[in-house]
């Protein structure tokens, strides 16, 4: 995992993600209004879902480029995590069979079983490379992922509030904007991991 680091310059990528998130949110809210812009399966949530799909694709592609080892394990685990976030964001509207299934408890149960099956499949390499992965985390090399996690935690804390300073839908607007920022960070990390796996960022 020694190659999976982020130079100080990566902060610029994070700032770009923040700027893009703010611009996209401003355009969405300007075009659709606060309520529709932050609605379930609205423009921001749709963008978030596509960013998570992109993260899954790049992480799986990174895993495909790697031999067995901690980086490959981390790429697969990252793809699974991005998929979990994607399923969390999926809230289809309508009364169709698929929409009912995705909103049902059965779907969450099947999701949990699928994650458990993947975890069982990965348990042998996880035990083998746990030390290297843990060392990578402790050394702070995963700080962009921690940053994305912190943004998501703040977003989750805002979820459920109906107004801020008397402005309806403002909490939802803030929540969706922060989620867009967090998923943009995850996508940026996934792209970097793929480029590292392809040897585009050789490091000692």
From TrEMBL:
Organism's domain of life?
Answer: Bacteria
Q: Which UniProt keywords apply?
A: Membrane, Transmembrane, Transmembrane helix
Native organism is: Aureimonas frigidaquae
Supply the name of the protein. Answer: Transmembrane protein
| Bilayer-spanning residue ranges | 9-32, 47-63, 70-87, 107-127, 134-155, 181-201
């Amino acid at each position: 995992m020694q190659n999976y680091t982020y130079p100080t310059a990566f902060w610029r990528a994070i700032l770009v993600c923040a700027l893009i998130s703010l611009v996209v949110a401003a355009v969405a809210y300007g075009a659709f209004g606060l309520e529709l812009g932050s609605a379930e399966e609205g423009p921001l949530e749709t963008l978030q879902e596509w960013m998570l799909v992109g993260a899954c694709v790049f992480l799986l592609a990174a895993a495909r480029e790697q031999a067995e080892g901690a980086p490959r394990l981390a790429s697969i685990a990252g793809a699974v995590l991005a998929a979990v976030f994607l399923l969390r964001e999926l809230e289809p509207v309508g009364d169709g069979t698929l929409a009912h299934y995705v909103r049902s408890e059965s779907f969450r149960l099947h999701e949990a079983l699928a994650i458990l099956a993947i975890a069982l499949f990965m348990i042998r390499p996880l035990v083998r490379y746990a030390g290297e992965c843990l060392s990578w985390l402790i050394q702070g090399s995963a700080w962009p992922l921690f940053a994305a996690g912190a943004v998501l935690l703040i977003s989750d804390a805002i979820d459920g509030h109906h107004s801020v300073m008397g402005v309806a839908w403002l909490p939802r607007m803030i929540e969706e904007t922060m989620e867009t920022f967090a998923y943009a960070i995850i996508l940026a990390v996934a792209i970097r991991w793929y480029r590292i796996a392809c040897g585009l960022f050789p490091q000692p």
